Amino acid sequence: MSYNLLKGKRGIIFGALDENSIAWKTAERVHEEGGIFVLSNAPIGMRMGTIDQLAAKTGSQIIPADATSEEDLQNLIEKSIEILGGKIDFVLHSIGMSVNVRKGKAYTDQKYDWTQKGTDVSAMSFHKVMQTLYKNEAMNQWGSIVALTYMAAQRVFPDYNDMADNKAYLESVARSFGYFFGRDHKVRVNTISQSPTATTAGQGVKGFDGFINYAEKMSPLGNASALDCANYTVSLFSDLTRKVTLQNLFHDGGFSNMGVSDAVMEAFEKGQE
């Protein structure tokens, strides 16, 4: 169902890899709600994914950009304003990567140059995106910037590895930059702390299947899907949430406020019989 929530709004969506990704689902929903946008991904992500199909489906152009490169981001923002015919109203940062996770290095045995690369891609890139937008005065007033995060920033999930630290950094950047963006340009900045989601990136985490089942049993509403997250993101891009900023918003079916659930207790009691 469409409500025309984003009619006349322009944006940039980072990180759509394939149809399982939250950024992909968000792009589809933004399109349905009347928004127009430029799609951007790192050159390697574009080779791995199927972003061309999404561009065709939503009538969007793709601008490759390495989100860790200030030059690439400057080019992206200038071209996006030109293509879209005006300043930006919304931005989705859906970018995360850990070389340590990918290569199977434990949290207690990190290769630090890999750690630094992951921090640069997953967290510092958010600061770089916002700084480039801010310095160029590229955002319209009452615009909205959203980044995707995970609750491992606050609590221990052992196999999430150094991505937990990256997400904590990301959330801090959202608050700190969000203050200046709100004060100076009336732009809001928030992070969405999403349920474990069966995306290409999510499934790379060790023990993912077991954990997604555990989260499903813990959450009174069950896990939020990628499409659910896209819908929530649309609400944050819309004019209905103009005074929501500097927030880390848990979108997880209630998981973040649970201690234990009946379903989880039953599973443990069965195991002891």
Which tags fit this structure?
alpha/beta, 10 helices, 7 strands, globular
Topology record:
Layout: E1 10-14, H1 22-32, E2 36-40, H2 43-48, H3 51-58, E3 61-62, H4 70-84, E4 88-93, H5 99-102, H6 112-135, E5 139-149, H7 163-185, E6 188-194, H8 208-218, H9 226-237, E7 248-251, H10 262-272
Parallel strand pairs: 1-2, 1-4, 2-3, 4-5, 5-6, 6-7
Helix pairs in contact: 1-3, 1-9, 4-6, 6-7
Taking all Cα atoms into account, the compactness measure Rg is 18 Å
- Classify the secondary structure makeup into a structural class: alpha/beta
Strand and helix order: EHEHHEHEHHEHEHHEH
The percentage helix is: 40-55%
Strand content: 5-15%
Task: Write up what this structure looks like.
It catalyses: a 2,3-saturated acyl-[ACP] + NAD(+) = a (2E)-enoyl-[ACP] + NADH + H(+). This is Enoyl-[acyl-carrier-protein] reductase [NADH]. This protein has 10 helices and 7 strands. It has 273 residues and is an alpha/beta fold. The relative contact order is 0.14. The model has no long low-confidence stretch (mean pLDDT 95). Helix 1 runs parallel beside helix 3 and helix 4 (70-84) runs parallel beside helix 6 (112-135). Strands 3-2-1-4-5-6-7 form a 7-stranded parallel β-sheet, sandwiched between helices.
